[in-house]
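Class, study these two lines:
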Amino acid sequence: MASTASRTLSPRKKPRQARATFTLDAIFEATIQLLVADGMHRLTTTKVAERAGVSVGTLYQYFPHKEALVYAVNERYLENLAARIESTCRAQHGRPIGEMVEALIDTYWRAKTERADVTRALYRSVAELDNQALIDAFAKRADAATSAMLASATDATFTDLKSVNLTLVTVIFGAVRNAFERNLRPAETRKLRRQLVTMCQAYLESAA
């Protein structure tokens, strides 16, 4: 059963036609732009509607308030991120663990840094929202994809795959977020990424 918080943050309806999907895309992009420019506290549904080129009434057809809108933006972001991780993991099935780790880190890092300002804005936007359901759904998809990938490795077998996988993804995801929070320079970020790959490869070799 959905929690009271998740029901409150759920959209009023889902788009059923291409035109409605286009409208929703415009609303989401306008929300992201305003979150980057002004932050969560200055965001309003009126500003979003104006930026998206739709009426406030149209926006309210989907979202009862700005918290529900921001929740939906974060939901789409995490769904897209999970899909990218799943695609990478499928492509790495049957490869050596060293290649798997590098591909996974590269995919996650790229997804987070392609629009770094957006990533930072979304991190901040959920500070006052109950987004645990979104995190749980993302973690379930990521864990399933990475576990299946590691299980298919040609050069390693893990007796406690669940623990090894949890450690791996926690280290990768945590390191990338910490890099954002520190606001590292590009040169420092590149070095950190390389060291992260080396560390994770060494861990998997040791755990195998």
Remarks:
- Confidence is low (pLDDT under 50) at residues 1-7.
- Residues 66-91 form the longest helix (26 residues).
- The radius of gyration is 19 Å.
- The domain at 76-207 is CATH 1.10.357 (Tetracycline Repressor; domain 2).
